[in-house]
Amino acid sequence: MVAGGLVAAFILSSLVNALIAVVAHQLGAPEDFDALKPPAYATLTALGVLAGAAGWALVRRFSKNPERLLRKLVPTVLVLSFPPDFAQLEEEGVIGVVALLLMHVAVTVIAVPAYLRVMPLK
Fold this sequence. Notes:
- The protein is 81% helix and 0% strand.
- It has helices at 2-26, 38-62, 66-80, 83-86, 89-118.
- Helix 2 crosses helix 5.
- It is elongated and about 45 Å long.
- The model has no long low-confidence stretch (mean pLDDT 96).
């Protein structure tokens, strides 16, 4: 059941990220921006979903109050994922970087409910 939920989160996140990439390109993001190509964002989406699940499982297992901790940890980790995207601002432009930031948010918004479903908090 856990694996199925994570696969569903990955597939839905990848579809949303594909839509974000298409829209970003239509709005002027560089066509050669590798991070907006399917192999790059699909791989990073899978890693994000898996890393998030691992962190969720660890907090769930070891925290006395996992819900309280995750309410702080999830947005903190999301914001901490942004700086590498901002580092690409000068060479890839605002539209490409905003697309990447939206991809991070999309994965988080999709993955967290999946984690709650397959790894409920105590």
